[in-house]
Design goal:
It comes from Rotaria magnacalcarata. The protein is of the alpha+beta class. The protein is built from eight helices and seven strands; from the N terminus they run αββαββααβββαααα. It folds into two domains: 68 residues, no CATH class; 116 residues, no CATH class. The relative contact order is 0.07.
């Protein structure tokens, strides 16, 4: 959890380092006082007693998240290492001694998830596929919802595009394609609607005719993937 006083000091250091004297007309001294109120004046009642939070900030507070990002980069990090695993573990264990409130969880291996991608190093050959968390549930917007039809179509399109971008082999792409179809069926999507959306998506890249066989061999898949990887991702 964030140490309150240290977080406020680091906030001031951050503002000074970026040349701020005021932010939207508010002096940085006033910002520090206001931030102190938000961090330190958090009280709650439990069991007929009143408690005051002395470490960290209110859960869900936008200021708490901002301070956490200034205090330490809080997102996931992926890195490669060319020295021994023992040296890497020693380095990471040393990092965990730098601050009593900062503890890094880490995983080391030849196959690791990073966000929603599974990366595998097989004797120097890197492969990727879509990663699903063990706790993930196979739910998307139900077909019976009141959403417009194009919203439901976009769910399928986005899922296929992610599978294509992330699947470095034809085999993993087919595996993810089966997962997508089962997930959609589970959420009430008619099989004809699913197949039509798959064909519509692939025909944009492979053929103008949706009736031709689509993505039935590796060559076609890699052609599709090359075209999609050459496009910018939507923002």
């Amino acid at each position: 959890m964030l140490p309150q006083e240290e977080s406020l000091d680091i906030l001031m250091t951050f503002l000074h380092a970026h040349g701020y004297r005021k932010v939207k007309g508010i002096s940085i001294d006033t910002i520090k006082k206001l931030a102190s109120i938000i961090l330190k004046d958090n009280v709650f009642a439990y069991g007929k007693k009143i408690y005051k939070q002395t470490t960290g900030g209110a859960m869900g507070s936008s200021l708490t998240l901002t301070l956490a990002n200034i205090f330490i980069y809080i997102d996931d990090i992926f890195m490669t290492w060319n020295r021994s695993e023992e040296e890497l573990r020693k380095l990471l264990d040393d990092v965990n001694t730098w601050h009593p409130n900062i503890k890094l969880d880490y995983k080391i291996g030849n196959s690791l998830p990073f966000l929603d991608v599974q990366l595998t190093n097989n004797n120097g050959v890197l492969s990727t596929c879509v990663y699903h968390k063990p706790s993930a549930e196979p739910y998307v917007t139900p077909f019976t919802s009141d959403h417009l039809r194009h919203v439901l179509s976009n769910i399928i399109k986005t899922s296929i595009e992610r599978a294509t971008r992330y699947s470095s082999t034809f085999e993993t792409f087919n595996h993810e394609g089966r997962y997508i179809k089962l997930m959609l069926l589970y959420n009430g999507y008619p099989s004809t609607f699913i197949e039509n959306e798959f064909h519509k998506y692939f025909s944009e890249y492979i053929s103008k005719s949706p009736f031709l066989p689509l993505i039935d061999d590796e060559q076609k898949y890699f052609l599709l993937r090359k075209q999609i990887l050459g496009q910018p991702t939507p923002r």
